[in-house]
Specification:
The protein is α+β, with helices and mostly antiparallel strands. The protein is built from 2 helices and 13 strands. The strands form 2 sheets. Strands 1, 2, 4, 7, 8, 10 and 13 form a 7-stranded antiparallel sheet that branches. A 6-stranded antiparallel sheet has the order 6-5-9-3-11-12, with no helix packed on it.
Protein backbone atom coordinates (compact mmCIF):
# COMPACT_ATOMS: atom_id res chain seq x y z
CA UNK A 1 0.00 0.00 0.00
CA UNK A 2 1.40 3.43 -0.99
CA UNK A 3 1.06 6.13 1.66
CA UNK A 4 0.21 9.70 0.75
CA UNK A 5 2.85 12.38 1.27
CA UNK A 6 0.86 13.82 4.17
CA UNK A 7 0.57 10.42 5.89
CA UNK A 8 4.22 9.53 5.43
CA UNK A 9 5.28 12.93 6.78
CA UNK A 10 3.09 12.45 9.82
CA UNK A 11 4.54 9.00 10.48
CA UNK A 12 8.10 10.30 10.14
CA UNK A 13 7.47 13.19 12.51
CA UNK A 14 5.78 10.95 15.06
CA UNK A 15 8.67 8.51 14.90
CA UNK A 16 11.22 11.25 15.59
CA UNK A 17 9.28 12.53 18.58
CA UNK A 18 8.90 9.02 19.99
CA UNK A 19 12.66 8.52 19.80
CA UNK A 20 13.35 11.86 21.52
CA UNK A 21 10.84 11.47 24.33
CA UNK A 22 11.73 7.81 24.78
CA UNK A 23 15.35 8.77 25.29
CA UNK A 24 14.50 11.52 27.77
CA UNK A 25 12.27 9.22 29.78
CA UNK A 26 14.77 6.38 30.04
CA UNK A 27 15.58 7.10 33.70
CA UNK A 28 12.80 5.61 35.83
CA UNK A 29 12.84 5.22 39.61
CA UNK A 30 13.03 1.63 40.83
CA UNK A 31 12.74 0.15 44.32
CA UNK A 32 15.83 -1.55 45.71
CA UNK A 33 16.57 -3.55 48.85
CA UNK A 34 19.56 -1.91 50.50
CA UNK A 35 19.71 -4.30 53.46
CA UNK A 36 17.40 -7.06 54.65
CA UNK A 37 17.67 -9.83 57.23
CA UNK A 38 13.93 -10.41 57.55
CA UNK A 39 12.47 -13.60 56.11
CA UNK A 40 9.65 -14.28 53.63
CA UNK A 41 6.74 -11.87 54.10
CA UNK A 42 8.93 -9.91 56.55
CA UNK A 43 9.04 -12.79 59.05
CA UNK A 44 11.38 -12.74 62.05
CA UNK A 45 12.18 -14.59 65.27
CA UNK A 46 9.10 -13.92 67.41
CA UNK A 47 10.52 -15.72 70.46
CA UNK A 48 13.43 -13.48 71.40
CA UNK A 49 15.07 -10.12 70.74
CA UNK A 50 16.94 -7.17 72.19
CA UNK A 51 15.54 -5.16 75.09
CA UNK A 52 14.90 -1.46 74.51
CA UNK A 53 14.32 0.20 77.89
CA UNK A 54 14.32 3.54 79.66
CA UNK A 55 16.22 4.40 82.86
CA UNK A 56 13.02 4.13 84.89
CA UNK A 57 13.01 0.37 84.36
CA UNK A 58 16.32 0.04 86.20
CA UNK A 59 18.06 -1.31 83.09
CA UNK A 60 18.60 1.31 80.36
CA UNK A 61 19.32 -0.15 76.91
CA UNK A 62 19.45 1.08 73.30
CA UNK A 63 20.57 -0.99 70.32
CA UNK A 64 22.11 -0.09 66.95
CA UNK A 65 22.56 -2.16 63.79
CA UNK A 66 24.84 -1.21 60.86
CA UNK A 67 24.33 -1.60 57.11
CA UNK A 68 26.38 -0.64 54.05
CA UNK A 69 24.63 0.18 50.72
CA UNK A 70 26.11 -1.54 47.68
CA UNK A 71 25.10 1.40 45.47
CA UNK A 72 24.13 5.03 45.97
CA UNK A 73 20.36 5.31 46.47
CA UNK A 74 17.73 7.58 47.97
CA UNK A 75 16.28 6.17 51.18
CA UNK A 76 12.64 5.03 50.97
CA UNK A 77 11.84 3.37 54.29
CA UNK A 78 12.99 1.23 57.22
CA UNK A 79 11.14 -1.81 58.60
CA UNK A 80 11.80 -3.25 62.07
CA UNK A 81 10.05 -5.97 64.13
CA UNK A 82 9.14 -4.27 67.42
CA UNK A 83 6.95 -5.05 70.41
CA UNK A 84 6.03 -3.56 73.79
CA UNK A 85 6.18 -5.29 77.16
CA UNK A 86 5.28 -2.46 79.55
CA UNK A 87 5.52 1.27 80.22
CA UNK A 88 5.29 4.09 77.70
CA UNK A 89 4.29 2.56 74.38
CA UNK A 90 6.76 4.22 72.04
CA UNK A 91 10.33 3.95 70.79
CA UNK A 92 12.61 6.35 68.93
CA UNK A 93 14.29 5.13 65.73
CA UNK A 94 17.33 7.00 64.40
CA UNK A 95 19.27 6.68 61.16
CA UNK A 96 22.84 7.83 61.80
CA UNK A 97 26.12 8.07 60.02
CA UNK A 98 29.13 6.08 61.20
CA UNK A 99 31.63 7.31 63.80
CA UNK A 100 34.57 4.94 64.19
CA UNK A 101 32.42 1.83 63.64
CA UNK A 102 29.69 3.03 66.04
CA UNK A 103 26.50 5.09 65.61
CA UNK A 104 27.31 8.74 64.95
CA UNK A 105 25.33 11.86 64.06
CA UNK A 106 21.58 11.46 63.53
CA UNK A 107 20.49 11.97 59.92
CA UNK A 108 16.77 11.32 60.44
CA UNK A 109 14.57 10.39 63.41
CA UNK A 110 11.16 8.77 63.85
CA UNK A 111 8.98 8.08 66.90
CA UNK A 112 6.86 4.92 66.70
CA UNK A 113 3.90 4.54 69.06
CA UNK A 114 1.21 1.92 69.58
CA UNK A 115 3.46 -1.12 69.42
CA UNK A 116 1.81 -4.53 69.67
CA UNK A 117 2.42 -6.72 72.70
CA UNK A 118 3.31 -10.40 72.61
CA UNK A 119 5.19 -11.26 69.42
CA UNK A 120 5.09 -7.66 68.19
CA UNK A 121 4.83 -6.67 64.53
CA UNK A 122 6.89 -5.14 61.76
CA UNK A 123 6.85 -1.34 61.93
CA UNK A 124 7.74 0.73 58.87
CA UNK A 125 8.91 4.35 58.86
CA UNK A 126 9.19 6.42 55.68
CA UNK A 127 11.93 8.85 54.72
CA UNK A 128 10.80 12.48 54.64
CA UNK A 129 14.14 14.11 53.82
CA UNK A 130 15.10 12.49 50.49
CA UNK A 131 18.28 11.24 52.13
CA UNK A 132 20.97 9.95 49.81
CA UNK A 133 22.76 6.84 51.07
CA UNK A 134 26.21 6.56 49.52
CA UNK A 135 27.69 3.34 48.18
CA UNK A 136 30.19 1.72 50.52
CA UNK A 137 29.38 4.04 53.44
CA UNK A 138 28.37 2.47 56.77
CA UNK A 139 25.14 3.71 58.35
CA UNK A 140 23.37 2.73 61.55
CA UNK A 141 19.76 2.24 62.62
CA UNK A 142 19.32 2.66 66.37
CA UNK A 143 16.28 2.07 68.58
CA UNK A 144 15.91 3.80 71.96
CA UNK A 145 13.14 4.16 74.54
CA UNK A 146 10.30 6.57 73.92
CA UNK A 147 9.73 7.16 77.62
CA UNK A 148 11.43 6.85 80.98
CA UNK A 149 9.67 3.57 81.77
CA UNK A 150 9.48 2.08 78.26
CA UNK A 151 10.22 -1.66 78.13
CA UNK A 152 10.15 -2.81 74.52
CA UNK A 153 11.73 -5.46 72.28
CA UNK A 154 13.52 -5.22 68.95
CA UNK A 155 13.02 -8.81 67.77
CA UNK A 156 15.78 -10.87 66.21
CA UNK A 157 16.24 -11.36 62.50
CA UNK A 158 14.89 -14.36 60.61
CA UNK A 159 17.08 -17.41 61.21
CA UNK A 160 18.97 -15.72 64.07
CA UNK A 161 22.06 -14.61 62.09
CA UNK A 162 25.01 -13.38 64.12
CA UNK A 163 27.17 -10.33 63.54
CA UNK A 164 28.51 -7.10 64.97
CA UNK A 165 26.19 -4.39 66.30
CA UNK A 166 26.19 -1.80 69.10
CA UNK A 167 24.57 -1.49 72.53
CA UNK A 168 24.21 1.53 74.80
CA UNK A 169 23.54 0.70 78.47
CA UNK A 170 23.80 4.28 79.69
CA UNK A 171 27.35 5.38 78.91
CA UNK A 172 27.23 5.56 75.12
CA UNK A 173 27.29 2.97 72.38
CA UNK A 174 29.89 0.25 72.47
CA UNK A 175 30.57 -2.66 70.10
CA UNK A 176 29.25 -6.15 70.72
CA UNK A 177 28.56 -9.32 68.78
CA UNK A 178 25.63 -11.70 68.81
CA UNK A 179 22.29 -12.40 67.14
CA UNK A 180 21.30 -9.44 64.99
CA UNK A 181 17.98 -7.63 65.34
CA UNK A 182 15.64 -7.68 62.35
CA UNK A 183 15.94 -4.87 59.83
CA UNK A 184 14.99 -4.06 56.25
CA UNK A 185 16.18 -0.90 54.49
CA UNK A 186 14.70 0.05 51.12
CA UNK A 187 15.73 2.75 48.68
CA UNK A 188 15.15 3.99 45.17
CA UNK A 189 17.41 4.98 42.31
CA UNK A 190 17.23 8.63 41.28
CA UNK A 191 14.63 9.69 38.70
CA UNK A 192 16.12 11.06 35.50
CA UNK A 193 14.82 14.60 34.80
CA UNK A 194 15.32 16.25 31.39
CA UNK A 195 17.97 18.97 31.67
CA UNK A 196 17.97 22.28 29.73
CA UNK A 197 20.03 20.92 26.78
CA UNK A 198 17.52 18.07 26.37
CA UNK A 199 14.59 20.48 26.45
CA UNK A 200 16.36 22.64 23.88
CA UNK A 201 16.70 19.55 21.67
CA UNK A 202 12.94 19.10 21.72
CA UNK A 203 12.46 22.76 20.79
CA UNK A 204 14.75 22.41 17.78
CA UNK A 205 13.29 19.12 16.49
CA UNK A 206 9.58 19.99 16.60
CA UNK A 207 9.84 22.94 14.14
CA UNK A 208 11.97 20.79 11.84
CA UNK A 209 9.35 18.04 11.80
CA UNK A 210 6.62 20.57 10.95
CA UNK A 211 8.77 22.09 8.18
CA UNK A 212 9.45 18.65 6.71
CA UNK A 213 5.75 17.82 6.65
CA UNK A 214 4.90 21.10 4.87
CA UNK A 215 7.73 20.64 2.35
CA UNK A 216 6.62 17.13 1.45
CA UNK A 217 3.04 18.32 0.95
CA UNK A 218 4.20 21.15 -1.33
CA UNK A 219 6.33 18.77 -3.40
CA UNK A 220 3.44 16.36 -3.73
CA UNK A 221 1.10 19.16 -4.82
CA UNK A 222 3.60 20.41 -7.40
CA UNK A 223 4.00 16.88 -8.78
CA UNK A 224 0.25 16.49 -9.23
CA UNK A 225 0.07 19.87 -10.99
CA UNK A 226 2.83 18.95 -13.47
CA UNK A 227 1.11 15.64 -14.09
Amino acid sequence: MRLSAKASSLLLGTGLLVVVFGTLGAGVASADIIFNNLGPSDSYDTTTGHTISGPGTGSFASVGEPFIPASTLTLSDLSLPLGISSGTNSVVVDLTNDASDLPGTTLEMWTISGLAGGVGSVQTVTDAKDLTLSSGQRYWVTVANGGNNTNATWFNAFGDPTGSFAVDTGSGFGPTRGILPGLKVEGASAVSVPEPPALALIGSIVPGVLWLARSRRRLAAASRTRG
